[in-house]
Every structure is written in C-alpha cells, then in structure tokens.
Amino acid sequence: MTLALPLARKVSDVFSELDKAIADFQSESSWACREGCGDCCNSPEVEVTVLEALPHALGLWELGKAELYSEQLARFLGKPCMFYVPNVSDSSLGRCSIYETRPLLCRMFGFTAQLGKDSLPRLAACRWQKLQGAELLAKIDGELKGGTLEVPLFGYWEQRLSELDPSQVLSQRLPINEAFLKAIDYVYWRQQAVLP
Questions:
Q1: Does residue 133 sit within a domain?
Q2: Other Cβ atoms closer than 10 A to 71
C-alpha cells in the first residue's frame, strides 16, 4: 500500500461532498455550463494544486501508466491541460478525459461563488454563462443577495482541501500539467517509503 492512498482518498471525499453541493445548487437554480463547453480548460493559465491532482496520479500508478503520462505531461508544460480533448472544429468545445478525477478547481468553476466586498456571494460565472444566461444570472444573484439560495463558496472548499495538507507543501498553485506531474512524483516517492 502506498502512503499516498489515505490522502488521495480524503481528497476524493472532499470532491464527492463538493459534487453534491454543486448538484444541489444546479437543481435549485437551473444553472449549467454550455453543452460540451471546455473553454476554461483550453488555457495554459489554469492552476491547481498537487493535492487536487493526487487522486488521478494515484490512479495512474495503480494502472501502471504513471511513467508514460509523466513523459507526456513534461511535453505539455506551459500548454493547456493535457487531459482536455478539444473538439476539432471548435477548441472551446470538448471534453475532459479524466472527468471523474478532475481537480477541485475544475469542479468549482462556474458553480461556486466568492464573497464580494459587501460579504455577499457573487457567482463566478464564465463568459459563456454570462452571455447565454444573463437573465438567469441576474435572478440567481438576487436570490443569493436575498439569502433564498445557497451556493458553494470557493473559499470554503479550497480551505477544506487545504486542511488536508498541514505542511501546505502540496497546496501551492501550479500550472495544471506541472501539478499533475508533481502529483505523479509525489505518489512515486510515497510508494518508495513503504517498500522493504
């Protein structure tokens, strides 16, 4: 057993709780992404933590594919997420090839809020959501201000994840491909610590 397994499970547990909170918010608000959208995934500036990438990295080791993906990730440094598969005719559309183990940030974007200067939640909507759902967004903002709708708060979930890493070594934000690469390395070194 690898020493990374308990931590990766705890991260996955936080992901599951967040997914439920987002599903509840979507059900109550009817808020959604554009069908097949991947515009936010198609940027080299997306940053996540090594901690967020651990569940997927552990899965790669368990499947015996970690070394292969390490080599591929090294070639993707400075580029959009390697696990995003863009549509050939429109790169803003596509799919996540690791959807079940995608990082926390990828789960939250467009479905969480940040507190404004007035301490009221503001939905972190993307440009497509703002364009296609301006009327619904205004309704949701009104319900958030009125306290009649609950939305997952970005800071709360980020803190929940951060608490799993008291050293904060794994909580540093890095470009997404670099974070996955470091997560694969982390699992490798944790495995070495338990070998005879």
A1: no
A2: 10
